[in-house]
Amino acid sequence: MNDYTKLIASLVLVASLGSPMASGQIPPLKRVMREKLEQSQLILAAVVTSDWGALERHSRELERLTSEPAWAVLRTPEYVRQSAAFLRATQDLIEAARAHDLEAAPLAYVSLTLSCVQCHRYVAKARLAR
Predict the structure, then answer these.
(1) Which of 67, 71, 116, 130 is the most exposed place for a label (fewest CB within 10 A)?
(2) Which of 106, 24, 25 is nearest to 70 (CA)?
(3) CATH number of the 3-129 domain
(4) DSSP secondary structure string, 61-77?
(5) What angle (nearest 5°) sits at the alpha carbon of residue 47, between those of residues 41 and 48?
(6) Helices 104-129 and 27-49: angle between axes, nearest 10 degrees
(7) Residue range 14-36: average pLDDT?
(8) H helices of 22-103, where?
(9) pLDDT tens per residue, range 99-121
């Protein structure tokens, strides 16, 4: 495993273990977040193995999750911005898969992972503020 792959795997681990949203989630949200994590892990595998079909399929599944009612945890402009960043990253993954782009795919994956971490931090702070 090279250093780049270790970095990506570490980001996934941080995103999954450090999720402040894990406590107190309602069942539909918990299901969506679990599915998001599973799809993200499958995307990492597809990026590392250059499995373009799987990359596109799992990225589209993440894109679909953003339209689930449980996805809208908050109704704030910042949450909308965070969701848009996540959606842009999924679309970048889809484009990288279509183009078989070995450089864009891992960058889009890192962007996706960072958008998750940043949003989870934001939601945790917003909940504390309440």
Answers:
(1) 130
(2) 25
(3) 1.20.120.10
(4) HHHHHTTSGGG----SH
(5) 95
(6) 160
(7) 68
(8) 27-49, 52-65, 77-99
(9) 999 999 999 999 999 999 999 99
